[in-house]
Amino acid sequence: MKKFVWLALVALLLIGGAVMAQDTEKPAFTQEEIDASPYLQSVLARQETMYDTSAFKKDGPYRIALAAQGTSNSWSALFDEHARWYAEELGTDVIGELLYADAQASADVQVPQVEDLLAQEPDALILVPMGAAALSAPVERAMAQGVPVILCASTVETDNFVTEVGTNLYAAGAYLAQYLVDELGGEGNVVMMAGIPGVTTSDVMEAGAKAVFAANPGITVLDGQPGNWSTAEAKSLMETWLAKYGDDINGVWSGGAQMSQGIVSAYLDAGKEIPPIGGGEFGNGFLRLALENELSYAAWQYPNAMVTLCMDMAVKILQGESVPRFVDFQDSIPDTQYFTDAEGANYFNPEWSDDVFGPILFPAERLESLGFLVKK
Amino acid sequence: MVLGATSSTAHTLRRFVVQYGVYVSLGLLLIAALILTPNLFSEQTLTVLLKQSAQLGIIAIGQTLTLLVAGLDLSVGGVIFMTSVIIARVSNGVDSALPLAIGLSFLFSAVIGLANGLLITKRRIPPFVATLAIFILVQGAVQAYTRGVPGGFVPEGLSVVNQSAGFISIPVVLWVVLTALFVFVLRKTPFGRRLYAVGSNADTASLSGLNVDRFKIAAYILCSLLACVSGVVLTGYVGYVDRFIASGLDLDAIAAAVVGGTLFTGGRGSVLSTMAGVLLIQILSTMALLLGLSIQTQFIIKGVVILAAVALYSLARTD
Question: Full-prediction pTM beyond 0.95?
Answer without folding.
Answer: no
